[in-house]
Write a structure and sequence with these properties.
Layout: E1 2-6, H1 10-21, E2 26-30, H2 33-42, E3 47-50, H3 59-66, E4 74-78, H4 83-91, E5 96-99, H5 104-118, E6 125-128, E7 131-134, E8 139-142, E9 145-147, H6 151-162, E10 168-169, H7 170-177, H8 188-200, E11 209-212, E12 216-219
Parallel strand pairs: 1-2, 1-3, 3-4, 4-5
Antiparallel strand pairs: 6-7, 7-8, 8-9, 10-12, 11-12
Helix pairs in contact: 2-3, 6-8
């Protein structure tokens, strides 16, 4: 899962980022409303945590502008906890509102609830041939034997298993799995595909990740069987 935190208090933003990363989230930070809006417009985030009192574009203005283009879940996290500001936040498109100070456990629970509501049909277990991915436990098994994947390896594999046969460009994989600061021309995707293939090779599954020349990668579609969650 990929989050954007828009918060001008750098220490607080870094603490939020660290907290979510311990739960296998990828987190981008923006310290101004303008920078945050630019990221939110070009990157597909699963949710956005948004302060209101930002140095340039306010959280209210950010939310109203983004709602012209996207329905990304937004949780407003702010010291403005009075009812009038809460109502204003909801009126411009916020999905949830949490006043400061806050307990991180509540923030985590609220963000997870927002994401669940956006993805009500997604199953927690995906399968492909003898490979089983438990999305909640972040575990992968092939023929009942565990495989230890890093967070990014897991993210790439999840993308492939959800959409077997679909070709993903390197830029698409970066946007789905990595933080936004990586350039599409970077070879970081190729490096992690190599890591992933090496971990799948003992089981003979490395051959299922196919390279599509000048485009990107895909997981081989096994016709006639419904291996992945639809």
């Amino acid at each position: 899962m990929k989050l954007l935190v828009v918060e001008d208090n750098r220490k607080l933003a870094e603490n939020i980022k660290a907290g979510f990363e311990t739960h296998n989230y990828f987190v981008d930070l923006a310290f101004t409303g303008e920078d945050g809006l630019e990221l939110a417009q070009v990157v597909d985030y699963d949710a956005i945590i948004l302060d209101i009192l930002l140095p340039d574009l306010s959280g209210f203005e950010f939310c109203a502008a983004l709602r012209q283009e996207k329905a990304t879940p937004i949780l407003m996290l702010t010291a403005l906890g009075d009812i009038e500001n809460k109502l204003k936040g909801f009126s411009v498109g916020a999905d949830d509102y949490l006043p400061k100070p806050f307990d991180f456990r509540e923030l985590l629970a609220r963000v997870e609830a927002l994401i669940r509501r956006q993805q009500p049909l997604k199953r927690e277990v995906l399968t492909y041939k003898g490979l089983v991915m438990d999305l909640k436990k972040r575990e992968v098994h092939i023929e009942d034997k565990p495989i230890k994947l890093s967070a990014r390896e897991f993210g790439i594999m999840e993308l492939f298993v959800r959409f077997p046969g679909v070709v993903f460009s390197r830029e698409q994989i970066i946007n789905k799995v990595w933080e936004s600061h990586y350039e599409p021309k970077s070879n970081i995707v190729d490096v992690y595909i190599l890591y992933l293939r090496n971990k799948l090779k003992p089981f003979g599954y490395d051959v299922f990740i196919e390279t599509v020349a000048r485009i990107g990668y895909r997981l081989k579609r096994l016709d006639g069987e419904d291996y992945a969650e639809r």
